Amino acid sequence: MVEKKEPAKGWPVIKGEFDVGDPKSCVAVATAGSHFGQWPIKAGAAISGPFHTENLGIEKIVANVISNPNIRFIIITGAEVKGHISGDALECLHKNGLKGGRIVGAKGAIPFIENLDDKAVKRFQEQVQTVYMIDVEDEQKITAAIKDCIAKDPGAFAGEPMLLEIKETKIGEEEEEAGGEVVAGAVPAGGVVSGMASEIMMIQSRIRLIKQDVKGIGYLNKFAMGWYAGKMEGVMIGLVLSLLLLALLFPQGVDLSTLRIK
Is there a contact between 187 and 172 (Cβ–Cβ < 8 Å)? Predict the structure, then answer.
């Protein structure tokens, strides 16, 4: 029987949009942009829920994980969030950590972290292993991953629960509440984007998405033109070959009026 510990009092210590199961379970399920409801909990997860941003959303996950030493695995799954790319950011935080307050290697728009220090990040990295299944929404596959983690449960982490204070005024908070998307851009030294700056970032996001759509349409047009050109080229080659074949078979020609071979 593996050793278990009591999580921090009142765990989960940071409230959010998630479902809670057995706090002694070793698995947390982070579902990015997907909402799975209760079935990950029924499969054995300690906590399961979405995280839409690559900053505040990730900070809440880390705070709830390191305040419960029993959690040793985090499954990163569900549909990736456009613009934020939060699933990738969480995996990068675990693999690469922070540099200058930014998640190293993250592809998201503004992966700037304010409420996690190096000590908290290191604890997160040491306490859990990640199971990266981003863009997977299949219940059977995710349930199997949960069961597999439970079967490999190493027991509670050696350290005691670590508590963090998460300030809610964050980069991307307005976009998360509005269901919007953001893109990379100039961020103040303090890391906070507010007022007109957030509106500008939202407009930049829309422009980027439009550019991506236009580029996609361009690729489709090029494909269609290439297909049509290839088709016409094939018709012409077939016609020429047919005429050459007729010339070889009937070197004297054909009397089309009588349809008799001369």
Answer: no
Tens of pLDDT, residues 194-244: 444 444 544 655 566 676 667 677 777 777 777 777 777 788 888 888 877
Which DSSP symbol is given to 185?
-
Q: Would you give the distance in Å from CA 56 to the centre of its chain?
A: 16
Q: Is 84 annotated as a binding residue?
A: yes
Kindly report the CATH number that applies to the domain delimited by 19-167: 3.40.50
107: CB partners within 8 A, 6+ apart: 85, 88, 89, 92
Per-residue pLDDT of 152-211, as tens digits, reads: 999 999 999 999 988 765 444 444 443 444 433 334 334 444 444 444 544 655 566 676
Record the pTM. 0.67
Phi, psi (degrees; rounded to nearest 5) at 11: -60, 140
Helix (H) or strand (E) holding 260: strand 260-261
- Answer yes or no: are the C-beta atoms of 86 and 77 closer than 8 Å: no
From residue 61, alpha-carbon distances to 51, 76, 94, 150, 199 in Å are 8, 11, 12, 19, 27
Q: Phi/psi zone of residue 191: left (φ > 0), alpha (ψ -120 to 50 degrees), beta?
A: left
The values of phi and psi at residue 161, to 5°, are -55, 135
